[in-house]
Design a protein that fits this description.
Number of strands: 10
Order of helices and strands: HEHEHEHEHEHEHEHEHEHHEH
Protein name: Tripartite tricarboxylate transporter substrate-binding protein
CATH architecture of the largest domain: 3-Layer(aba) Sandwich
Signal peptide: 1-22
CATH topology of the largest domain: D-Maltodextrin-Binding Protein, domain 2
Largest sheet: 10 strands, mixed
Oligomer: single chain
Number of helices: 12
Family: Belongs to the UPF0065 (bug) family.
Distance between the termini: 56 Å
Strand content: 15-25%
CATH superfamily of the largest domain: Bordetella uptake gene, domain 1
InterPro entries: BUG, Bug_dom1
Number of domains: 2
Radius of gyration: 22 Å
Shape: elongated
Helix content: 40-55%
Keywords: Signal
């Protein structure tokens, strides 16, 4: 009799789980953003949340869980119930954290279900207003002449500006003096004030300063120029002499490992619909971002892309010798 009841209970639980998947979502979905409100990733996540409301048929809530270069928020999602109601929007840090942090409470991508990439965000190389160099060729000569005297600002360990700066130094085969800050705002303030020399920062943050002629722009980090008025004359760094230089900050959507396949399929379908939303596309393009439309919208391709990026950045970080405890 006990065996019979266990069988019946098991069938009931399986039926309940199937019903839950069929009804998903029947309550609000939360997207964890592992960075502060008002920043680029937060803005992207909020725009995505708005575009997801219609295909999901539910409210999508943003939860900013910040700290340790985005790893606290990522860990929160890795530990969350695998039911599709707690998701993560994070950037390239998903691929770089394993190399940057000696102790992570989660594995990438093993502890997550990849749902698809959202966008790609190129950065721009900018300099203080008083810098003598007026173009990239002159800047390259100036860097060669000054070496470690050159101060290269970044917004903190694992930030887009930090990673781009590492790749820039690697491409030039030189070493500059890194100046880390606790965020983009103070780094940009000191660059405008001339306390530091250079910074490699996401276009979304740099364009207002370029438009106001508060900083000099030397190049774009993607392989394509950006169709923004402030950058109409700015070449790519590849065009300017760093052949094939390509550093873009990408954002992806993730769920906890073990989320049911039926739920993952619904979330991926909703993401694909959201990324076709004209209003979302308009907002992304206004920020200099490109919405992903290629195979990386497929969960398996997204996972493969993260693994490739993880390998790529591990070498750059190892060569630079920059880690966090």
């Amino acid at each position: 009799m006990n065996k019979l009841w266990r069988h019946v209970a098991g069938v009931a639980l399986a039926g309940s789980a199937t019903l839950a998947c069929a009804n998903f979502p029947d309550k609000p979905v939360t997207i964890v953003v592992p960075f502060a409100a008002g920043g680029p990733t937060d803005k992207i996540a909020r725009d995505l949340a708005e575009a997801l409301r219609k295909p999901l048929g539910q409210t999508v809530i943003i939860d900013n869980t910040i700290g340790a270069g985005g790893t606290i928020g990522a860990a929160k999602v890795a530990r969350a119930a695998p039911d599709g109601y707690t998701l993560l929007v994070s950037h390239i840090g998903m691929a770089t954290a394993p190399a940057l942090y000696r102790k992570l409470s989660y594995k990438v991508p093993e502890d997550f279900e990849t749902l698809g990439l959202i966008n790609e965000a190129p950065s721009v190389l900018i300099g203080k207003p008083g810098l003598a160099a007026n173009n990239f060729a002159e800047l390259r000569q100036w860097i060669a002449a000054n070496g470690t005297k050159v101060n290269l600002a970044n917004a903190g360990l694992g930030s887009a500006s930090h990673l781009c700066g590492l790749m820039f130094q690697s491409a030039l085969k030189t070493t500059m003096t890194p100046v880390p800050y606790k965020g983009t705002a103070p780094a940009m303030t000191d660059l405008i004030g001339g306390q530091v020399d250079l910074m490699c920062e996401q276009a979304v943050n740099a364009v207002p300063q370029i438009e106001g002629k508060k900083v000099k722009v030397y190049g774009i980090t993607s392989l394509q120029r950006l169709p923004l008025p402030a950058l109409k004359d700015a070449p790519t760094l590849s065009e300017a002499g760093l052949k094939d230089f390509n550093v873009q900050v990408w954002h992806g959507l993730y769920a906890p490992k073990g989320t049911p396949p039926a739920v993952l399929a619904k979330l991926n379908a909703a993401l694909r619909t959201a990324l076709k939303d004209p209003e979302l596309i308009k907002r992304e393009e206004a920020l200099g971002l490109t919405v992903v439309t290629d195979e990386r919208l497929d969960p398996a391709s997204h996972r493969k892309f993260v693994e490739t990026e993880k390998t790529r950045w591990a070498k750059v970080i190892k060569d630079a010798g920059e880690y966090a405890d």
